[in-house]
Write a structure and sequence with these properties.
Layout lengths: L7 H4 L4 H5 L3 H43 L5 E7 L2 E7 L1 E5 L1 H13 L17 H6 L2 H7 L3 E5 L3 E6 H10 L6
Antiparallel strand pairs: 1-2, 2-5, 3-4
Length: 172
């Protein structure tokens, strides 16, 4: 039996028709090679993400504390580069506690809870942030704030100035 050794590099310059004309074993070999490359790339990406978090996580947390925020994007300089550190916010709502909050609004306040709660019993984070404190306090037991995976981007100073103009203000 002859071993088939066709790798993704072999098809880089082929058009789709030429790739489709390959034998099934060749296509299987390419698919296997691609899966191995993806797994290897994911491993490298995970290591880089962990290394960036190890290197910059404390500075990013300090910058967020200085800016009085728990999540979001912060910027700081390192050796002539600007590190953009993002810690996304993920809010989850406890469905049973939201139902309880809805009943309080309906029974005790005589108000329609549908004005505050979506049908799926989700609460808009933007709306929650603007509610009066007594209303937020009713919903707080149902709310859990988690963070996503931190991400980092390293930009040259010129790139940082251009991207800062598009999004959040530049923090030195």
């Amino acid at each position: 039996m002859i071993a088939v050794a066709v790798l993704t590099d072999h098809i880089r310059d082929l058009d789709t028709g030429a790739v489709a004309a390959l034998t099934t074993p060749e296509l299987a070999c390419i698919a296997d090679d691609l899966a191995e490359q993806k797994a290897s790339l994911n491993l490298v990406e995970d290591k880089l993400r962990a290394a960036l978090d190890l290197k910059y996580g404390a500075r990013a947390a300090q910058r967020r504390a200085e800016e009085a925020k728990d999540t979001g994007t912060v910027r700081f300089e390192d050796n002539g580069f600007v590190v953009v550190a993002d810690l996304p916010k993920r809010v989850k709502w406890d469905q049973a506690k939201l139902r309880h909050a809805a009943e309080i609004i309906r029974a005790s306040w005589g108000d329609d809870p549908d004005a505050y709660i979506k049908t799926k019993l989700e609460v808009s984070e933007a709306a929650f942030a603007h509610w009066p404190k007594p209303l937020r306090d009713v919903f707080l037991p149902a709310r859990t704030v988690e963070t996503g995976k931190p991400s980092y981007r390293i930009e040259t100073a010129g790139e940082a100035e251009r991207s800062a103009g598009r999004s959040e203000p530049h923090a030195a």
